[in-house]
Amino acid sequence: MCTSEWRRARIEAQRLADLARLRRVRDRIDREYERPLDVRALARDVRLPAGQLSRQFRAAYGASPYAYLMTRRIERATALLRRGDLTVTAVRSAVGCASPGIFTARFTELVGMSPEAFRRQARQVRGSVRIREAPAAPPALA
Predict the structure, then answer these.
(1) pLDDT of 38-49, one tens digit each?
(2) Could you say which DSSP state residue 95 is in?
(3) Can you spell out the DSSP letters for the chain?
């Protein structure tokens, strides 16, 4: 194997190893979104500097690790708010967002309305859906 082939193989092996690290970070965020997570801790777990993790994660997934985490939290929050049995504060806590201001701002940015407005709208939609019997079919003419 010549030097250039060896370099290419080494670069490809490093790229695959980096992608595996990024998948581990993404999977951890998906699994543990309700826990306090920060980029430094995520980077430490995959033995990368925080800045390098952020750059590589953004290149691979189109968002920083923090933005990805907040998106997961907001996705889960919308599901919980749709149920209608929890307050916005309870939902915010359940998805691991400690700051009411950050939660509301990010929710509004991603969903297009405040968490409270979303909850009210979900209640109205759920309350207006009624299941009715289908009308009886007219008798068949022979």
Answers:
(1) 899 999 999 999
(2) T
(3) --HHHHHHHHHHHHHHHHHHHHHHHHHHHHHHTTS---HHHHHHHTT--HHHHHHHHHHHHSS-HHHHHHHHHHHHHHHHHHH-SS-HHHHHHHTT---HHHHHHHHHHHHSS-HHHHHHHHHHHHHH----PPPPPPPPP-
pLDDT digits (tens, 9 = 90+) for 5-39: 888 988 888 889 989 999 999 999 999 999 999 89
CA torsion, points 106, 109, 112, 113, in degrees to nearest 10? 40
- Burial string for 16-49 (b: 16+ CB within 10 Å, else e) reads eebeebbeebbebbeeebeeebebeebbeebebe
